[in-house]
Design goal:
The protein has 390 residues and is α+β, with helices and mostly antiparallel strands. It folds into two domains: 1-36, no CATH class; 74-390, no CATH class. The protein has helices spanning 21-28, 77-89, 132-142, 162-176, 194-198, 363-380, and strands spanning 4-8, 11-14, 51-53, 63-65, 108-110, 143-144, 147-148, 203-207, 211-216, 221-226, 245-251, 254-260, 280-289, 292-300, 309-317, 334-336, 342-344.
Length: 390
């Protein structure tokens, strides 16, 4: 969870992963001084200046948000330049009111042909699955000896850098031994892009003129895309977030989005490669039929990818009667093994665990790294067999 601390007395703001005593007290008491995003921005600001956001309630106090000219880090400039070019072609984006928004109401899920992957139907059905068999197939097709071959046609279309190809290989090697870790089982958020785009659970797309929410049943995850004219969080105030920092505009009925500041090594899925904290994303989301929505999305990551990684994620409307989003909670009997895998205590079983402090800033990374460490031993022939399930 992103931490909070008191910047000054009476002012609560998001900060880095550390949690101060004052912030903890405020959080435990359930107090929040953060105003929700509401309609209405002031006139166009000077380059780099903040914009003032106003509620539609008469007499309400406005608040400042980063202006549209706020700079982004060097590593995100390629994707942001493409996003700004799209915005220029859309003449700055359409100004929408509540009576003229696309109707994306209802319950949606990822099309079944997507499987559990970014590439979806562009790769083999086995590559879209989970478990040891799929992991071994990826190893067999995407490496020649110790040499990675990415993009791996028909199996994984990401042009992984050598460092991240090795990390992926070690992860797959662990999974062939049935050692795989899922952050959801450890009560951690799915993160972006997994929660919003890849998990096969129910979701809602809540569209307003100034903000769009992509909600997911997985641990009640909510991704917020701001369309009120603001820019990204200033570089000197930024830090990685589970769902990143997303801004957007409307190009007709298409929502165009730019996202950055995502936590490193957020698990896209159990058999997908890791991304770095320099990943950024450009999306074009639109309804393509009465019961379908498509998200044309591209990942840019100078550390993990040699070239952008593109996909089209397709959502379909769920029409079963009396369906709604439920709260997906984690099973208290699920735990992480010493090797890093996710396991469960069966009825009548027991397990002795040693749990130490985990820094909230890298808790996700620690979970994945245990699996990577075990996978490296598998490749070297040094890994002991995983113990029997309790």
């Amino acid at each position: 969870m992103a931490a909070l601390h008191l910047k000054e007395p009476g002012s609560l703001r998001s900060s880095g992963p550390a949690l101060s005593a004052w912030g903890l007290i405020a959080l435990l008491l359930g107090w929040s001084g953060v105003a929700p995003a509401q309609p209405g921005a002031d006139a166009t600001p000077a380059p780099g200046a903040d914009i003032m956001i106003r509620s539609s309630v008469a007499g309400s106090t406005p608040w400042a948000e980063p202006g549209p000219s706020t700079a982004v880090p060097k590593w995100a400039q390629q994707s942001y330049r493409i996003y700004l070019q799209m915005k220029a072609r859309a003449n700055g984006g359409a100004n929408r009111d509540a009576d003229h928004m696309p109707d994306w109401s209802g319950l949606w899920t990822v099309d079944g042909s997507q499987g559990f992957t970014w590439d979806g139907p562009a790769v083999d059905r086995l590559a879209r699955g989970l478990g040891p068999k799929s992991a071994q197939a990826l190893l067999d097709h995407c490496w020649k000896g110790d040499t990675p071959e990415f993009p791996c046609k028909g199996w994984l279309l990401a042009a992984l850098t050598p460092q991240y190809a090795l990390r992926f290989r070690e992860k797959l090697a662990a999974v062939t031994r049935d050692i795989e870790w899922d952050p959801l089982s450890d009560c951690l958020p799915p993160g972006f892009p997994r929660g919003a785009l890849l998990d096969p659970f129910g979701r809602e797309l809540i569209v307003t003129p100034k903000e769009t929410w992509m909600t997911s049943q997985t641990l009640n995850d909510i991704r917020r895309i701001y369309t009120d004219g603001r820019g990204h969080t200033p570089i000197d105030e930024s830090y990685p977030l589970w769902d990143g920092d997303s801004i957007g505009f409307w190009d007709g009925d298409t929502l165009v989005v730019h996202t950055l500041y995502v936590l490193s090594h957020v698990e896209m899925q159990r058999l997908q490669p890791s991304l770095s904290d320099e990943a950024s994303f450009v999306e074009r989301i639109k309804m393509t039929g009465p019961d379908t929505i498509e998200d044309d999305a591209t990942i840019y990551d100078p550390l993990a990818l040699r070239q952008p990684w593109h996909s089209v994620i397709r959502f379909v409307r769920q029409s079963s009667p009396h369906n709604h989003v439920n709260m997906y909670a984690c099973d208290p009997n699920v735990y992480q093994t010493a090797q890093g895998g996710t396991d469960i205590i069966l009825p009548g079983g027991s397990v002795t665990m040693k749990r130490e402090y985990r820094d909230p800033s890298d808790v996700q990374e620690i979970g994945v790294d245990k699996v990577i460490e075990y996978g490296a031993k598998v490749l070297k022939g040094e890994a002991p067999k995983a113990p029997a399930r309790p």
